[in-house]
Design brief:
1020 residues; eleven-stranded mixed β-sheet; alpha/beta
Length: 1020
Amino acid sequence: MKKGEKPVNNPKGIAIVGMAGRFPGAKNVDEYWQNLCAGRECISFFSDEELLALGVDQALVNNPSYVKAGAPISDIEMFDASFFGFSPKEAEATDPQQRIFLECAWEALENAGYDSEAYKGWIGVYAGGSLSTYLIENLLLTNFYTLESLSRQFPASNDKDYIPTRVSYKLNLKGPSLNVSTTCSTSLVAVHIACRGLLNYECDMALAGGVSIQVPQQLGYLYIKEGMASPDGHCRAFDANAQGTIMGNGVGIVVLKRLEDALAEGDCIYAVIKGSAVNNDGSAKVGFTAPSSSGQAKVISEAQAIANVNPETISYIETHGTGTILGDPIEISALKKVFNASTQKRGFCAIGSVKTNVGHLNTASGVAGLIKTVMALKHQVIPPNLHFETPNPEIGFEGSPFYVNTKLSEWKTNGTPRRAGVSSFGFGGTNAHVVLEEAPAQKLSEKSRPWQLLVISAKTDSALEVATENLKSHLQQYPRLDLADVAYTLQLGRRTFDYHRFVVCQDIKDAVSALAANSQRVLTHYQKPILHPIAFMFSGQGSQYVNMGRELYQLEPTFQHQIDKCAEILQPHLGVDLRHILYPSVAQTELATQQLQQTALAQPALFVIEYALAQLWLEWGIRPVAMIGHSIGEYVAATIAGVFSLEDALAVVTMRGKLMQQMPTGSMLAVPLTEQQVQPLLGQQLSLAAVNSLSSCIVSGSTSAIETLQQQLAAQGIDTQPLFTSHAFHSAMMEPIVQKFTQRLQQVQLQPPQIPYISNLTGTWITADEATNPDYWAQHLRQPVRFSLGVSELLQQSESILIEVGPGRSLSTLTKRHLEPGAKQLVLSSLHHPKEQHSDVAFLLNTLGRLWMAGVEIDWSGFYAHEKRNRLPLPTYPFERQRYWIDSKPRSLSALDDQKPDITETDKTSSSQLYSRLNLGNPYIAPNSELEIQIAEMWQEVLGVKEVGINDDFFELGGDSLIATRIFSRLQTTFPVELSMGKILFQAATVAQQAEMLDQLLLEKITELSEEEIKSLLAN
């Protein structure tokens, strides 16, 4: 259901369909969950040497109240700038919170099985972060950037307000993009607002979460008695010895959809949000930052009311649980107030706090608790709450509904769905609570094809190898996955990049084997986005065979439907059910083979197969811009183009075949000579039937005349090949039926073609007058087929893809003979040759894979139009991260005085700050002329790249409109000519193009100057 539509009697709730995150000790959600189940505390304790190296004062390190602990996440300085279109300099000046949140947003969508570009609905972003300490510590205080210089370079790179909008921009998301800022409760409030956005149909999918990364991460903190921070780096929520928490770093994102949409679209549902609420404490509390039992109770009660659940059915609460002397008792007091109001049951609801594992993640803490609880619902176990030994006497667990869960416990249920609550409370009093329920049972996917097409793509060849290995390992780890669902997720849920790879396989074991061996079945290709015109080629008589496309008839509903429809239309004309001849029983195969050699049956049979194949290709999104047919094949092209209705085409083709079969028998001979060489050999009894290539013609005539010609050519050492036909098609022997056939055609309403196609008679594009003239079609059965001229015309489009739509590969073989060395055209077939033992489905999927690999856009929804599939969480994109980081420097006063540079130089980048050239599709070509060198150096400084080649695209290097203005400014300052920013950067996007443009402008400028002015200009 999309924006603007209204639900009718649909299940209520918000489904969580995807997740991503990075947490202390965990690079992803799976590692995070493993740590929680193992009862692992992910707090780091720092040595004196580490702290001193970071510039922490010796006196502070020696202070007994200084706690040398923190909860860092790994690799915050790493980022895949090229993937997201950042220049190196922009990447290093961007807050790691923005960079990591962006990567996680991509991973979350892929975890949900969606590509934001392909998704037709609106995707919203609701998120928040913490104050950028990277800006303060690494850019302003120690590297002497000024706010002015930062705003001039990258104004949105470090302000937390831009976290959601940067994601929307980079991922092209069109839904609401809202920054949320309620301190500790930010991320859970973001989830609540996202739910409201979905329920109000402001978007169809939402990313919600938060991030908090404080730089540097490896710092301790001063313990203040009865403050918020723990004296020893451990959080002992609800314990008698609890004295505070420890601040940590992390990021978490969930992907949300309306439940009815998630169920309808086969999403992997981790859990369901049944209700959520947000409020504020107001002023009825001790102080601004103090918690309020009343405010917390109200938000929990409201969320439960919205969820329409009885507290007695909630068996786990993920608490805010900071382990503070004041906070824990107030929070449990609020919970008891809500639960005791509706139940007398005791000790049935477990509680826990993820802060005992990873610390307090500030603006990301709410989503960290949410993801923990979602995973607990999914796996039906509750992780242990750490460091709990003796209950805090101020809480009073005895006689309450709650108990602290201290071990990994099975999450049992008494028949009602498992339900949980998640709380997050912020400094300033904004409280959030979410009620979760385990995911409903989802329908299993339907039966699918016996072969599946797995597609993998990446931005670089190295990333493609990693992605392949990751997929193989995942399939090995989960061998019971439905391979069709794997294929479906890869096709619909992953962006297609320039490096392509595919394999067609039967099952998980086969897939693992093929991917592991990197066998010949695994095809790989590099293809930048380009428009490939598609041309259909329809085969002629002689290519037919019994059981052509039989597996497609059994397994592809569209193909079967078209065959059935055509067979039913044909039965009154033929007097037989064509399906019995196409797909006979074993006992009838020999008879069907003989029948299929009869022209009266062969031509309708070929037409039907080719028409059904074309309809299948069209359903899969493969739409021709041009067509060609060989003899009877042109009738299929004309029908697809709208010249004939299907009913008229079948009637005409049937009559054509019957009339031909009534003629005296004859023969046809393939001759490896040019048309000019063949013409003198024809005489009165032979006709030129076809010109298939420059040195391949078909001669047609009486059997005796054909035998004489064959002997004559054999005596000259010329090998010829008789065709297995019963009549001399496209010869003078067809002349007697021309008039009768014309009369039949005059009864047909012919229409101008809606898709261009090549005429057999002229070898060029058919005209509307020709296509609608009965005489044209009458001459069509008499005159030669000029396939060579026709296919040469098709091949004028250098990037075209020609697909033979029919049995075998006769036209594909002929077409390849016309290709120039190094030609870029691609020639493919739809059905295997009769002598090849191939699965029809596997063969067709290999062709489809080659089309995808060449950059053709496949309509995957059409491909799955007749089956219901489910999305699966599969490995996400393997980012190729590099270090983009401006290190902080010692902050002593003397250092400040010694190191402070001229502010005018802050725009320049030293060689130590230049980064390696990004992985582009084109090779590096160094600047050669003085002008190219000057321009390349400007680009290097502004973009932060060591090497800029003369053909490197400005925007592929990470340039954007803001960076463009800086380069334009430098060019204007350096060169005394009038420049247009639109022309110099948007029409000349490479160094070579800019140099050429500037060179021309300078020459024009010089012609306008006097000799003295030229000398002055050259002197400068």
